[in-house]
Amino acid sequence: DIQMTQSPSTLSASVGDRVTITCRASQSISTSLAWYQQKPGKAPKLLIYRTSILESGVPSRFSGSGVDTEFALTISSLQPDDFATYYCQQYLDYSWSFGQGTNVEI
Amino acid sequence: QLQESGRGLVKASETLSLTCTVSGASISANNPYWVWIRQPPGKGLEWIGSVYYSGSTHYNASLESRVSMSVDTSKNQFSLKLTSVTAADTAVYYCARAIRKLGMLPLDIWGQGTKVTVSS
Question: Of the candidates A46, A50, A99, which has its C-beta nearest B107's C-beta?
Fold first, then answer.
């Protein structure tokens, strides 16, 4: 099984900050990585797939990068609506697995 | 849209059964994979398994001996069964859709989730 490790687990930031969350895969997944945002009591929402492709309707302040085992999600200017938990997720050979999540808090 | 339904309270050692109803489109539209994910209280997301619209399945190895999934195209529904449940299976269970986008299968539509508690 492919293990996904995110860092940090918690990130304290302010409105307007540039923030970066990293995600590491236990083996190469090429660019088969997605990012999700989850708010308390809600289902996750797809932000980015194929490492860097924004899902329709997602603000351009979100961006993704990386390849093989090292990936990053960057929010260029944190907005009040962005305080949430973020998960990376890999897909390979009909198997999905998630990172443990990064809580972005004020 | 996706909507989960099923019993919210299951006794230990019994079988958890959930259904996800697809509305607004055919369950086979866009050749989707239908996926179940769960989230224990205060914890992260765990993939349980997936069922292709035609019926083929893939399961998380850690749950494979207890899981089964199926699709009912006549009802536009897909389902999850998890046998021999324990307290560790207490979680919010989500159904989701995965369709192929640039060669991968991101989960682009999610149900609202349903809370399942396993009681002793």
Answer: A46
